[in-house]
Amino acid sequence: MNQISSIRPAAPAGGGLGEGFDGAIARMAPIGRLLAEEDELRARYLAAEPYPHLVLDNYFDPDVLDRVASEFPGRGGRDWLSYDTANEVKRTSRGALDLPAFSQAFLWRVCAPPMMRFLREATGHADLCVDPLFHGGGMHESFRGGWLNMHADWTRHPVLPLTRRLNLIVYLNRDWDPAWGGALELKSPGGGGAVAKVEPLFNRAVVFPTTPETLHGFPDPIGCPGDRSRKSVSWFYWSPDPDAIKGGAPITFLPGNRTTRARALLRSLVPPAAFAARDAARDGLRTLLRSAREGG
Predict the structure, then answer these.
(1) What stretches of the chain show up as alpha helix (H) in DSSP?
(2) Both ends of the chain: CA-CA distance in Å?
(3) Is 0.85 surpassed by the pTM of this model?
(4) Has residue 9 been placed in a domain?
(5) Percentage of residues in the chain having pLDDT higher than 90
(6) Domain range holding 72?
(7) In whole angstroms, what is the distance from residue 200 CA to residue 228 CA?
(8) Residues 199-211: pLDDT tens digits?
(9) Is 95 helix (H, G, I), strand (E, B) or coil?
(10) What is the DSSP letter of 249?
């Protein structure tokens, strides 16, 4: 059963509905701080290299992020999308569908009108709007050995007349060691293009545009321990475009590096059931070890 009692701010002066559910919703997005710093953040976004982007550290309520991270389901038995190709090894929720109520509320709060006002002003997309289906957004997770080759994102919505304009990612990884990899790389086109790296640290958010030139990814396999994963929540923001379904661009990947190409070839030769059996065995062993420690 989903409860919000663990995130309960003090009631505002004079009482009212600030306690409980409404108070928890109000804490889900740092709207007041973002609006107060709007001019500074817009300048940082526009000045960033190799293309406009904005990194926000410790803007969100850590209790909210911890709650969302705790609601990621276990690896087995969840109805998620699983990508295992030469270009990416990762898993994502089906948008907001079937997510716990608290996490769904978090996704929607970061699409509230004041948040949309900030994003429009900071990025210059005056007609920015929300996709009610959260297509491609929601919870994202990569485990040890996962990667995402450098790529330019798709812009075509599959069913709505929208063109994708902007990405927002919030990372949920407490005590993440940068030595494990998983940093988001932002790269301009061309072999000698500049690269910015955004480590996937807890309570770090990054905003960047979706264009054919805004290459990004984490192209090296993650080296985190087997009981850890790279967790994030993603939002895609859009502009209305009646011709978008016919004219949007598909996703385009750059070639992977030598390590991921070799791993992708190996994975293509091994039946998926073998990887599923391996993951199940690892999960079972971790459960046994955990039970033994707790029993000792």
Answers:
(1) 21-26, 31-36, 38-47, 62-70, 101-109, 113-123, 244-247, 258-269, 272-295
(2) 30
(3) no
(4) no
(5) 66
(6) 26-295
(7) 13
(8) 999 999 999 999 9
(9) strand
(10) P
